[in-house]
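User: Can you predict the 3D structure of Lipocalin-like domain-containing protein? Sequence below.
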Amino acid sequence: MKKLLWCLWFIFISCSNNPKSYINHLEGYWEIQEVILSDGSVKNYKVNETIDYISLNDSLKGFRKKLKPGLNNNYFTSDDAEALTVMVEDDSLRIYYSTPFSKWKETVLKATEDQLKIINENKAVYLYKRYTPIQLNVE
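Assistant: Sure. Here are the predicted structure tokens for Lipocalin-like domain-containing protein:
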């Protein structure tokens, strides 16, 4: 019985979400799917004109930029970007953003190869999916 309890405890600990593991999945192109506002209302995004690009370096600093996707891995953007720093705090992964006009933070609730779920300070939950570029084969 004692061995069974130890096995169950080990499985539970192994399956628990480790916020450090989310860091490996943050970088890349993300397309918003839906936002759940603090009042429970949901806004779905069927078509997106822009996507988010997140870039991180080894010191967990980087930027987030809005991009307009084109064809065959081409993207259009301005020079605007939000500087960011990623930190593990209170058993959560936090993203701290800054621009010349504002500073804010978000908490990563989930980050996998294909999905990103973030909550902001207003308790709005953002669900993203990994963006797949539009490829046209011209012969």
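The first strand starts at residue 28 and ends at 36. The helical segments are 2-15, 19-26.
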